Amino acid sequence: xxxxxxxxxxxxxxxxxxxxxxxxxxxxxxxxxxxxxxxxxxxxxxxxxxxxxxxxxxxxxxxxxxxxxxxxxxxxxxxxxxxxxxxxxxxxxxxxxxxxxxxxxxxxxxxxxx
Length: 114
Known about the structure:
The protein is 79% helix and 0% strand. It has helices at residues 10-25, 32-54, 58-84, 90-113. It has 114 residues and is an all-alpha fold. The protein has a single domain (6-23, 31-113), classed as Up-down Bundle (de novo design (two linked rop proteins)), CATH 1.20.1440.60. It starts with 9 loop residues before the first helix and ends with a helix.
C-alpha cells in the first residue's frame, strides 16, 4: 500500500516536529529577524514535502524534495550560528541538529527512490 497523503510521509512528520521544536526553542529570543528566518526555513522543509507530493508527479515531487533538503541545510546552518551566539543551549542544539540531519537523510532516500 502506497502513501496516500503527505501527512503519512515520515520525513514530513519529522519536519513538522522540527518546526514545532524550532518555534518553541526561539520563542523567548528577541532577535526577531533571526527567529523569522529559522522558523521560515523549518516550515519550508515540511511545506515543500507537502506541495511536491500534492503535485502528483514524481518529477515535480523530486524537485520539491531537493528544495526541502536545501531548507533543511539552512536550518542546520542557522542552528550552528545560534549555538555559537548562545541563542540556544547545547542540549537543544544537539537534539535539533540531530533531527535535521535525520530529515536530510530521509529526503535523500526519498529522492533516490524516485
